Amino acid sequence: MVILVSSCLCGEKCKYNGGDNKNEAVMTLCEREPHIKVCPEVLGGLSTPRVPAEIIGGSAQDVLQGNAKIYTKTGMDVTAAFLKGAERVVSLLEHYPIEKAILKAKSPSCGKGRIYDGHFKGCLIEGNGVTAQALMNKGIKVITEEELI
Questions:
Q1: Is residue 84 within 8 Å of residue 44, measured between CB atoms?
Q2: Could you report the per-residue pLDDT of 129-143, keeping only the tens digit for each?
Q3: How far apart are the first and last CA of the chain?
Q4: What mean pLDDT comes out for the span 79-99?
Q5: Are the beta carbons of 64 and 134 closer than 8 angstroms?
Q6: Spatial distance between the Cα atoms of 97 and 128, rounded to a whole number of angstroms
Q7: What is the pLDDT of residue 149?
Q8: Which residues contact 35 (CB under 8 A, 6 or more apart)?
């Protein structure tokens, strides 16, 4: 089995602000387990750093179905990049025996269970990121670094 892991959790500087979200528990797991590092936002063509983005007008499932959008804090529609990144990550399922993903909590791409509410004020709501939702739709178990014990 191969685990998908958010690149930022492995110390790669692909976070929206140019930093990382290095997590020692994730790093330790990656030393023991076969894994593939992914950053859906970068895979979708977004730069690092980039303006923060949030899902607006619905859920990740709504975005996947074309009924909601993802906008940056400055009002730019980046939905297509998020969808492309999710598609590229999901395409890995065709080539690797992936059953699980450890993704960055609260992210509009990778979050699971809670994401930011679309108002750019730091408020969380129930929901998933677009890539996390796309993976779950394919039967992949998704957890965040916050759930890794």
A1: yes
A2: 999 999 999 999 999
A3: 19
A4: 98
A5: yes
A6: 23
A7: 67
A8: 2, 3, 4, 5, 29
pLDDT(118) > 90: yes
**What pLDDT sits at residue 144?**
98
**What residue spans of 5-138 are helical by DSSP H?**
24-32, 40-43, 60-64, 79-91, 130-137
Q: Which residues contact 113 (CB under 8 A, 6 or more apart)?
A: 105, 126, 127, 128, 144
| pTM: predicted TM-score of the whole model, two decimal places | 0.97
Rounded distance between C-alpha atoms, residue 61 and residue 39, angstroms: 19
Spell out the alpha helix ranges (H) of the chain.
24-32, 40-43, 60-64, 79-91, 130-137
Helix (H, G, I), strand (E, B) or coil at 65: coil
Structure tokens, 103: 């993704």
